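ligand=pseudouridine-5'-monophosphate
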Amino acid sequence: MINALLEIHPEVQAALENNRPVVALESTIISHGMPYPKNVETALAVEQTVRDNGAIPATIAIFNGKCYVGLTKEQIEYFGKAENVWKVSLRDMPYVLSKKLYGATTVAATMRIASLAGIKIFVTGGIGGVHRGAANSMDISADLTEMGQTSVAVISAGVKSILDIELTLEYLETKGIPVITLGQDEFPSFYSQKSSYTSPLRLNSPEEIAALIQTKWRLGLEGAALIANPIPVEYEVEKNEMEVYIKEALAAAEKKNIKGKEVTPFLLQYIANHTEGESLQTNIALILHNAKVGATIAAAYTTHR
Ligand code: PSU
Ligand code: MN
């Protein structure tokens, strides 16, 4: 029954059957995270980086009443350009699938589909988390609850400080999700290598990370591991510089009464618009870096399985 909802690209299917490394990629970042045409260029460059590092990319999105695992160039172009694409988290999946609408998948929805397809490694830029002020708004991304229950490793550049990083780390601990920073003690905050929070765990190589993931799942501990890959220093935006724009963005969201699923895209777009594209360049650099590391982890994971 599940398979009736899955449309796996033949190249991805062949890789999975032959135990070759596969990396899942999300599509919300394409449709709602970056402007056209940079979004399409980046999505294609990310796929190429995954290939260059020895894995098969599987960008995930919803249309025709199915979950597509592995998109063509034309399909990626469509998701980058079209105005009628839903941002689909777990809550929206049944609606968008049964109504046969176009849906770009968030971290949560992408993880679920990757897991149904048998993909264990997923690369993104930033995850959703506990928002600042969540004690009142209760705005906590379904990315976190999904990470608590679906066994897919998520490679990110840490948690963006549009969120409450401290509370997000607490929530991840509650859900039993190992949080591992690659190569440094401090947990990174997306635009910056720093966050002023110590990473719960540190490992220094993709091989060690692959071994940890395997060990977790062999124990029967369902759920994600979150791998934080710090942005390369040459692309870093200074933490205090970003904080100014984040505060402005949060104030603007409040004033415009932005709620629910619109909050994250609004904040991201506001920051991009007010940093003269610097944040966009940073975003592109870090996701390419994540693609490289993620493909290497996927290769190590399949070798040692
Ligand atoms: N954070 C980013 N870039 C993104 C997102 C988050 O830095 O593109 C997207 C991801 O798809 C993530 C989603 O899964 O936003 C989270 O949305 P929400 O907070 O509504 O759950
Ligand atoms: Mn939310």
